[in-house]
Amino acid sequence: MRIKFHTIFSALLLFQFFLSVNSGFAQAVPGGLIKPGELWPDNNRNHVQAHGGGIIKVGDTYFWFGEYRAKDNDPDLRYVGCYSSKDLTNWTFRNTVIKISDPENLGKNWVLERPKVYYNKKTQKYVMYMHIDDGNYKLARVGVAVSDKVDGSYSYLKSFRPLGHESRDIGQFVDDDGAAYLIFEDRPFGFRIASLSDDYLNVEKEICLIPFHMEGGALIHYKGLYYAIGSALTGWRPNPNKYATATSLAGPWSEFKDIAPPETLTYGAQSTMIVKVVGDKSTTAIFMGDIWKPSEQWNSSYLWMPLNIGEGKLSLPAPKPWHLDVKSGKWNYTPSAK
Ligand code: GAL
Question: How many structural domains is the chain composed of?
Answer without folding.
Answer: 1
